[in-house]
Specification:
The chain is mostly helical and 170 residues long. The chain is built from 5 helices and 2 strands, in the order αααββαα. Bound molecules: zinc ion. Zinc ion binds next to α1.
């Protein structure tokens, strides 16, 4: 059975169709969407503010849904349930108040972190921290952070003594 796009008149395999009953090809549909967005930017804004409001009101669900998508994209297990996502008032790493999701992501925006990245989103391996803490940690291990901290402290000491030396000798 072949399908023909009612807009451009092309049929498969020259154009692709979505699964389901659409009688327009994906190219024509996306052109339509682009056109509509251009004509009515207000609809886009209204939609975005609706989505943002929903996200702010449903933070656990928002984290859950985007983590599920992310897990699929990067190929890690996803077996947590909504109840595994507990949102604290403050960032457990830095102690500042967590900004709700919705709107551009900032350092204090709450985010779901995998404690051991490679294990994925499994029970006991997720916690909600600020985006800043999440970024700094990324997929680092405890041992790596110890080394990083030691390295930085050593470097800091060197620089301080260097600064002291040059100040004295100048
Ligand atoms: Zn078409």
């Amino acid at each position: 059975m072949s399908r023909t796009c009612l807009r451009c008149g092309l049929g498969a395999p020259n154009v692709r169709f979505q699964l389901g009953g659409s009688r327009f090809c994906v190219t024509c549909i996306s052109k339509d969407v682009t056109q509509k967005r251009r004509e009515r930017p207000d609809l886009r804004t209204a939609h975005n503010s609706y989505v943002n409001r929903w996200r702010i009101e449903n933070p656990e669900r928002t984290l859950f849904t985007s983590a599920k998508k992310h897990a699929r994209e990067i190929g890690v297990p996803f077996t947590i349930t909504l109840e595994d996502i507990r949102i604290p008032k403050v960032c457990p790493v830095f102690g500042f108040h967590l900004r709700p999701i919705g709107g551009p992501r900032q350092d204090d925006t709450l985010s779901l972190d995998r404690i051991v990245s490679s294990l994925g989103y499994v029970k006991g391996n997720v916690w909600v921290v600020s985006w800043r803490a999440n970024c700094l940690k990324r997929d680092g291990t405890l041992e790596e952070f110890r080394r990083l901290l030691n390295g930085l402290e050593r470097k800091n000491l060197q620089q301080k003594s260097h600064a002291w030396f040059t100040r004295v000798s100048a």
